[in-house]
Amino acid sequence: MRYLEFYVNPEEEGKRVDAILRRHGLSTSAIRRSKRRPHGLLVDGEDIYTSYLVHAGQTVAILADDKAPSDITPNEGPVNICYEDDDLLVVDKPAGLAVHPCAGSWDDSLGARLVHYYHKIGLEADFHPVHRLDKGTSGLMVVAKHPAAQHSLTAALHSQAFRRCYLAVCEGCPSPMDGIIDAPLGRTEDSYIRQCVRPDGKSARTHYQVLRVWGRFSLVALELETGRTHQIRVHMAHIGHPLAGDFLYGTEEPGLISRPALHSGYLQFSQPFTGETLTFGSPLPEDMAGLRSLG
User: Catalytic: which of 66, 92, 134, 287?
Assistant: First the structure.
């Protein structure tokens, strides 16, 4: 079982234990869930209530793992794990693998593979993605092992404390070669999937910088301020430079690449409970790199 432990500092003398836990990023729902479990909340190893008043020098512990098995059917399959600790994993997802079970991917998904992996190592955990990638998008993704970690990481997701950088190959060359696309996004009237720029949409900002020009294509680095559905794909199409191979917002060209040319190439964030800065990179995959010679 995974316990999160927090040392009570002198300035926290006399505070309620639930207030201490919230200061460390635990949500009210996570605290409530843990207090209902046997030995879910402890101070110096003794069971306590959330109203307990702590003293300096004590150690507060909260049970953070999942109390019920996942409802995702496990499926054995490769998972490229770049990093793992007691609270989270960073995985490098291949293009073509859905994150969640869905139509066309009920039997195999990143969630199904990770639940199988958890069973294999004897970990009782559900699938808790911190952010998501489209099925066709490859690259780095953070997955929490328990709800407390997911809550803390998700809260940091759209801040300077959590950086997500992508590599894309787009049609043509954007001008200027670096800038910010600030255009609100919403769903089109005729589709549950397709998004578009619309004045009544949700705020969306994407930073971009052209790294290389490859004939008819450009290699572009992009960083998200927001995380709307298909944000990079819609924004690049909006400025007239859709991603290579994007069947939904550009031109499908299976002879060149079988999916939208988008890769999650860089992540930097803080471990939610130790504060350690974690940094990861993933190289451009072969199918995207191959567009250099076809441009």
Answer: 134
